[in-house]
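Good morning N.,

You mentioned wanting to compare the apo and holo forms, so I went ahead and generated the holo version with 6-O-phosphono-beta-D-glucopyranose. This is what I fed in:
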Amino acid sequence: TAVDPFDLVIFGGTGDLARRKILPALYRRFCAGQFREGARIIGAARADLGTRGYRAFVAEALREAAAEEAGDAAALDAFLATLDYVSLDARGDRGWPELAAKLTEDRVRACFFSVGPSLFAPLAERLRRHGIVTDRTRIVVEKPFGHDLDSARALNATLAAHFHERQIFRIDHYLGKETVQNLMAVRFGNMLFEPLWNSLFVDHVQITVAEAVGVRGRGEYYDRAGAMRDMVQNHLMQLLCLIAMEPPSKFDPDAVRDEKLKVIRALDPVQPHHIVRGQYVAAPGRDEPGYREEVGNPRSTTETYVALKVGISNWRWAGTPIYLRTGKRLVARSSVINVVFKHAPHSIFGEDAGQHANILSIRLQPNEGITLQVTIKEPGPGGIRLIDVPLDMTFAEALGPEGAHHPDAYERLVVDVLRGNQTLFMRGDEVEAAWAWTDPIIEGWESRGDVPKPYEVGSTGPTDAELLMRRDNRRWLGIR
Ligand code: BG6
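and this is what came out, ligand included:
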């Protein structure tokens, strides 16, 4: 169903995120009929573009993002007609009265902070000072949400001085991914999995977020962040929470976020020998540069890869490790959660039949879907030999073309902001707890002067990550 008319202001409206993600997502939702007559989108940035200039910028952004197939020429014109633009200074007062004058009384005002984190506080203050904050104002804050626990606390405090928690939408776009929500549906919508979802039956869990790309022009930010801050503290932590949390009593924002928070607070501190850090280097015969060349910092010790063994000290998970790994410039783009079940307690088919384990694989990207490896008899007249076959819940096959179309995470999240639904957004205490767990790991590296292990572009990561598993008699399931 369509959302009521709203005013959506995109601060950083000419920036990279707005161009690549937010505006295409808005256009797709517009074409899907989700906006009612009168909805308005206002770009705000420093450049002196004017409304016509901004509409041209957006039309170009939609072409680049190949979003225009969502609608025809008439739809595009109608969408562009919803757009307006204000040139303003985030740190000064120029442009703010003009912005305030453009807003409509009595409707949802969503303010997207699609800007660097140093502007979050100035924007929040100016929204307040220029009388733009009403009860129906919401702000959307992108990562990075702080750099460590102290900075995240300070940021939460600044935002809390101007907004109620129910007005603050902290984005982790992984929560908007279709399969991530499906993970909750599979866990809590079926009888089949939940009774086995604990350390009695689950041997371990592997969460892999592998990327084939490098730092893509964001070297300056990335070199100060590294994979731990850029990916683990937020995206992998969220995936871990959804895998490990207790069933919330309902699918509502605080019920879900309370359960996630309990998981983060139950995480053990990570032992230094349970962490592998890596940094990519050029590989013979390939064109891609190594990380240090790519960011132009020949002495950088920033990690572009991390693998970790994580323990959760609670009744459900004690003794079942969760292995996390993420890295850039790996062999393929592939994000998968594998829940590896224990072996059957006894094989009646003898040793020759081999050891088999059920594995539930939740693939986030590409080729979203869920498969369950089950063991069956190899067909044929001989004795019983066991093989594994996938019970395949790949949506494209089960649901037809409709199932194959996955809305981008931002489409889902933008609509949730307009509707005021915070379930898929992080609460302030959750972000702080995640930093409280991450900080000692990073401080450990800094105090030991740790240098990441090199791994070649296009590989599966540093060999130490294989050792991390082998020491436990386990192995990573393939990245492809
Ligand atoms: C972002 C990180 O949050 O997520 C990037 O800053 C990373 O470094 C990106 O590339 C990955 O997102 P996705 O949706 O492509 O898996």
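The pocket of 6-O-phosphono-beta-D-glucopyranose is lined by residues 143, 211, 230 (CB under 6 Å).

Happy to go through it together on a call whenever suits you.

Best,
F.
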